[in-house]
Amino acid sequence: MAHILLVEDDKSIVTNLSEFLQKEGYSITAVDGQRKCLALLEENACEYDLILLDVSLADGNGFSICRAAKAMTNLPVIFLTASGDEYSVVTGLDLGADDYISKPFRPRELVSRINNILRRYGKATALLEYKNISVDAVKGTVQKDGQEIFLSALEYRLLLYFLNNQGIVLSRSKLLEALWDIAGEFVNDNTLTVYIKRLREKIEENPQNPLLIKTVRGLGYKMGD
Q: Which of 89, 120, 151 is at the close of a domain?
């Protein structure tokens, strides 16, 4: 599981982005300023795989962090910039940033850019497994018994959530919250029932007697013991 250091002082962005990226299979550590970020890097930079960095911070700025990070580590850096701010983009790239994405950004595009950079740095190791099912969260591929299977975006997100919460009983409300799209796509209770059924049809040997995603009567669903 790739570990992303998110440096952003807008609390709503931190909350929404962290939840979204965790659902996509990443581990997130978030800090809101320059001093906290540099302290973490000085303490244990090897713990992180990528820095997701806002340009404007209440405490310092992203340019200083990028310069320091590139001097002390080999971590890739993606800048989050205000839309149309050409100066920030050029300055960030000149300082060694690997990519930038403009706010407001599309979450799926951000994930794609993160994955591309992780592959380039040889850090693409986000493999999640349970029994005969494996998911490469960096490549976005799913395999059953070693053969690739194809899931819709919601089926994929649902499977990732189960894999990241193995052994935990997940209520329907928790699953609905997990499927809520950061861009505002509404997922209702009926939709959840449909997608669990479809996911079981693709990953279970016998969808009528599921052994991977089990129903816990009166409580919800569970993957793993």
A: 120
For residues 113 and 21, membership in a common domain is answered with yes
Residues 92, 139 share a domain: no
Tens digit of each residue's pLDDT, the chain (225 residues): 789 999 998 999 999 999 889 888 888 999 998 999 999 999 988 899 999 999 888 788 899 999 999 998 889 999 988 756 778 888 888 888 999 888 888 887 888 889 889 888 877 656 788 999 998 876 788 999 999 999 988 898 899 889 878 888 999 988 887 777 544 556 788 889 999 999 999 999 999 999 999 999 999 999 988
Structure tokens at 105: 């950004």
Do residues 134 and 189 share a domain? yes
